[in-house]
Amino acid sequence: MSPHFSRGAVAAAVSLACLSPAWAQSESATLKEVTVTGNPLGTADAVVPTARLEGDALTLRRQGTLGQTLDGLPGVGSTYFGPNASRPVIRGLDGDRIRVLQNSGAMLDASSLSFDHAVPSDPLTVERIEVLRGPGALLYGGSAVGGVVNLIDNRIPRAPQFDAKGGITGAAEAGLSTGNKGRDGALLLEGGNDRYALHVDLSKRRTEDVSVPIDLPCSKPGSAEQARRICNSASDTESGSVGGSLFFDHGYLGASVTDYRSDYGTVAEDEVTIGMRSRRYALAGEWRQLPGWFSSIKLQAAHTRYRHTEFEGDEAGTRFRNQGNDLRLEARHRPIGPLEGVVGLQLDSNRFAAEGEEAFAPASRTRQQALFVYEELPTGWGKWTLGGRVERVRVRSDGSTDPDVTRFETGERSFTPLSLAGGALVRLSPAWQFTANLAHSARAPRDYELFANGPHLATAAWETGDASLRKEKSNSVDLGLAWQEGPHKAALNIYASRFSNYIGLVDTGNTRSAEGELNPTDGDEALADLRYAGVRARFYGAEANGTLRLLGAGGLGRADQIGTLDFLWRADLVRATNLDSGEPLPRIAPARLGGTLSWARGPWGAQLGVDLVRAQRRVPAEGQRATDGYALWNAALSYRVPLGSSELLWFARVDNITDELAYSAVSVLTTTAFPKAPLPGRSARLGVRLNF
């Protein structure tokens, strides 16, 4: 059994310098870190809580999915539908309350529709990931009430990297993993001069079934009936992109085409695999030093074609298609006295369709138009911020594309969500700063929340929407305190959100057959009968993290003799309650505590860390399994080799060193498919990255 937090375990963890995975060194404790997401003016001091991963920290932390890569950052978890489909969870909120962006533009897929649908992006090709926690993300829509995850790459170059003579740069990475017998690699090339730039990247990842600490059954043809592997968890993923930009005296204009393909097992069913395909055409530009009211204008536009097919063995089953466009214009106005800010327009539209026996949502069309504004007022002690966004959202159900399927309601709903946010940053001293944020957020219901009516095997339920749903509304407060003195730093955020109409799945107490028969009596396995409904809900919690220099510059001893030794720590806690029933909301992460000892000297780096995750007994009476606590130990080693103007980085890491058996309290599989999908067991990864 996995342990609870015992005093001995906590003492041992603290004495060995524990944090989230050992390579999580780039987090939100720095006071002068410039984060693009949620800060359109590019100022150094962020009022809203942010975190970012880039460089070596991202290279060492990368996993096969976005959710697993970010899991362990303060306040951030993972939906973990096995090792191939995992979306971020922020402060207990998931799905359409978390906006996943690509270079600040919309990313169109079906990952928020169902837990088994992966995000069509490979972390191998991402240069930086920024995470904005909390409702300060209203610039990106009411659907970002929980936060924003922004995947930033250079597929459309935004600034010249070379002089008039031109040049070429790039990076190549390759890795091997033991736990899933994984092989992966990526190549990036960029060239040009001061007037144009071209970008090309390719990536490939292939894995087999993931190793775990216990024997699990498997009925998939060609697989062992019992093995220490998660059945049907293999994957084969590849992506590629071509992009380029033209630069002029006061801006740029560029475009890119990105193709992503992934074939992977769904884990919940031994013989069901998903074949995913996504193609994205993007356009971006910026015009600076303009005359008149606005000093600069940014343009982003994209067209995405997404589809995936669920195969039962070799036979094609349910098919999902999503096609859409998005356009975002952002204009920075000239200062009005000390006041600086941006105003913007965002247009989104998409067509969704599902075909097959297990299609639980109808063909639909969603259109959204939005106006937003963000303003900053600097003061002698810090600054004020104020933002607002108004949207017009139309959601239309066209029923099923199969004329024999008549269970879906048709019709159209319109909504006008309004979101407002205000914040303040106070510099208490050169080392201390205080932040406060207040927000009112509104989100229009999604198409499936309004019109779903069918079997959803990812949740082992028959899901039914409610076409009369109102907007989801919440009021939130976030208070933060941050300190930095030399290499030492710490940050604390506490927050609370109250929803007057939190849209979630409510268990009716009935069951349905796969054909929709209510409370079947023929003995077949029945699905839980769940309905989308609005309830009153409350979320609150805290996040803390920091760095303490133990040895070297800023600590004891001389850095040139012993290097530097840092103790990085973090902790977070979230509580969520359905105020109508008095019960906890489902799939909420338990309290987490962690730390890392991080040593560096010359070309060498080494880390040892642990994550302590408390048992989660605070679950609804029906619909979720309680989970035990666990401790996951991790280690990493890196060595940097200069090669003229290039650089080679060798790295190795070991995840779950003790091969601990653990189940995620946030994963729906822990309840619906127990014990099929524990967290991965011990795995070693060896990799090399060349920057030239």
From TrEMBL:
Q: Where would you say this protein principally sits, based on its record?
A: membrane
- Which positions carry the signal peptide feature in this UniProt record? 1-24
Q: Does the keyword Transport apply?
A: yes
Subcellular location per UniProt equals:
Cell outer membrane
Please report the record's description of how this protein sits within the membrane. Answer: Multi-pass membrane protein
The highest taxon in the source lineage is Bacteria
Q: Please report the name of this protein according to its UniProt entry.
A: TonB-dependent receptor
What species is given as this protein's source? Answer: Pseudorhodoferax aquiterrae
